[in-house]
Specification:
single chain; 107 residues; mainly alpha; two-stranded antiparallel ribbon; 4 helices; elongated; disordered C terminus
Length: 107
């Protein structure tokens, strides 16, 4: 999940306001996840959602609910924040291989 146009927030309002957006988004993500799920900051303005125990349609539905919650959420004094997301799904015949590839850190 990637915060759209995040650089504009940092450039026009300052990094301290960008940090507020990141903190608010992280809290919002956590509040919409099941206990077995996780949201982790993956890059500057990117978050990785780990949704366990769901088939691909259920995972996509969960992410859609989160994206909608982000659309409705407002950080005081900031323009609305939007996010883009990509939801990869493991191949049906090799889910363990897929997960190992996704979760193995790069050297």
């Amino acid at each position: 999940m990637d915060i759209d146009h995040f650089k504009r927030v940092n450039d026009s309002l300052g990094h301290h306001r960008g940090d507020e957006v990141l903190t608010a988004l992280a809290a919002l993500l956590q509040s919409h996840l099941a206990p077995q799920d996780a949201a982790v900051r993956w890059g500057g303005e990117e978050f990785l959602l780990i949704l366990t125990g769901r088939d691909p349609p259920e995972a996509r539905a969960a992410v859609r609910r989160i994206v909608e919650a982000v659309r409705e959420y407002r950080v005081l004094g900031l323009p609305p924040v939007t996010v883009s997301w990509t939801a990869p799904a493991p191949p049906a015949d090799r889910p363990a291989v897929f997960m190992n590839a996704v979760l193995t850190p790069c050297p």
